[in-house]
Amino acid sequence: MTSIDDSSDLRPASASHHNSVCSVTGYKSKVLISKSYEHLKCLGISLPNFSSPKRHPLKTLRNPTLPTTILTIYNSTMTKEYQHRNPGIQWDEVSCALAAFTSYHDMTTKHFLEPRNALLDILKKEDPKAAELMRPFWDQKETSLKKALLSNDQLAQAIVSFSQTFFLSYNLDTDYKTYPIPSSAPSPTDHAVVRSTIRQFWRDWSCEGKTERSACHAPVREDLESHYQDNREQVRILIPGAGLTRLGYDLAVAGFSVDAIDVSYIQLLATNFVLSQKDGKQETSRPDPNLTGEVENGDPDGFTLYPFATQFSSHLQLSDQFAHVKVPDLGPASFLGPPHLDLEADTLTFSAKGLSLSAKDFTKDLNTAQTAGTYDTVATVFFIDTAKNFFDYARTVHHVLKDGGLWINVGPLLWNCYELGPGGRREGDVDTDEDNRSRVESATGGKKGGLDSDVGGDWDPKIELSNEEVLALLVGMGFEVTKQEILKEEAGYIQDPESMLQAKYRLAHWVARKLPKED
């Protein structure tokens, strides 16, 4: 029987995760996670003798009915200073996000598999011959779908387990226990954002998604490379609506100081998870100090992701729906170090070398006296069309930029993605609708009705502008447009490259310089 004591070498969970025992380093805190006390016995693990004065009492979540029991072992080296510090985390948001990830498999099965099984049952009664012909095809598809959802769920549950362990490593379990269950169940939008976030790993953190992300990331990198050739560590860049933060990571690796912000706790927890992954084959993976390309990695370890498993339309062959990739394509923590929780921040903030990620609302939290003139560049990618009022975004950018600072933008102008996006009014696959909604949720924090709610009721009145109007308004708001073009290369957004339907955007790319105030 395995025994755990003070000298146990508890290893961190690897990229494959689902290890029952893991360690959290930093502050010398060891954390053991298991589904239940009895499960530990089944694993052949004996707990240490807690009667010893050198050992801490067993700490568990207050609610014994929770699906996960968290045990903190040997925590005595944590100082009182850290134990009582309040990092300003919205624990109810954390719990709600984790609950949404936890239910990924059940909710995805409910919304995508069960209705199709029910339809086949109806077909048996209404058209037995058609049902008989359809049966072998559906059996094959159902088997593949179940396998794909289970594989995707491994990534979702790894995010949950890692996040719980991460917060406990800072001895924040007392705060976490305050909200062991969110005050309200995850909304349909929360579940949709989780599904979109899992798919977004393909776009941001797979080798196969490089073409799509490079179409919008490369122009930003090239602009920065040409403008800032020296002392990059002193160049502060703000990325609002950062999502899974691949652009922020690549710029940090290139030497810039990057602040990425997002209002979605779902995206924040997923990003902290992926940024904490280490590269198992570091000798074959080196960061590119020049901005000529991304960090490359051929490491086969990681999670198997089926990004298009819940898309049922426009496939040439069944295998296209169940194409799978490995994520992440590299281990970010091998280059920047693993993120740590910023206990001085007034909101949830993760920080690594040259990169911070915070739970902030762009127009609300960045319009303060403390943020005035603090950034050299603001980079907006697939972002400005999430604004209800573009003027609010432009004013905020102008506020945070230093005189002469740059606003670099790449993206479409899909102002009302709830209704007018590819597959709008729920035509075609629900995935496309979810991905567009997730982009708005990530930028604004707005939680509209579920996918089954009235489309007209979901519509948000917005100021809808053409690219020509956007450029003209920039001049009127204190910017000089130094570069503007429509990129030749079109880009999708989590777009299956093999699909018969290619929903692509023509991307506006421009650079605007903040003019100094006239005396």
TrEMBL record:
<dbReference type="InterPro" id="IPR012901">
    <property type="entry name" value="CARME"/>
</dbReference>
<keyword id="KW-0949">S-adenosyl-L-methionine</keyword>
<protein>
    <recommendedName>
        <fullName>carnosine N-methyltransferase</fullName>
        <ecNumber>2.1.1.22</ecNumber>
    </recommendedName>
</protein>
<comment type="similarity">
    <text>Belongs to the carnosine N-methyltransferase family.</text>
</comment>
<feature type="region of interest" description="Disordered">
    <location>
        <begin position="425"/>
        <end position="453"/>
    </location>
</feature>
<dbReference type="GO" id="GO:0032259">
    <property type="term" value="P:methylation"/>
</dbReference>
<dbReference type="Pfam" id="PF07942">
    <property type="entry name" value="CARME"/>
</dbReference>
<keyword id="KW-0489">Methyltransferase</keyword>
<dbReference type="GO" id="GO:0030735">
    <property type="term" value="F:carnosine N-methyltransferase activity"/>
</dbReference>
<keyword id="KW-0808">Transferase</keyword>
<dbReference type="InterPro" id="IPR029063">
    <property type="entry name" value="SAM-dependent_MTases_sf"/>
</dbReference>
<feature type="compositionally biased region" description="Basic and acidic residues">
    <location>
        <begin position="425"/>
        <end position="440"/>
    </location>
</feature>
<feature type="region of interest" description="Disordered">
    <location>
        <begin position="278"/>
        <end position="297"/>
    </location>
</feature>
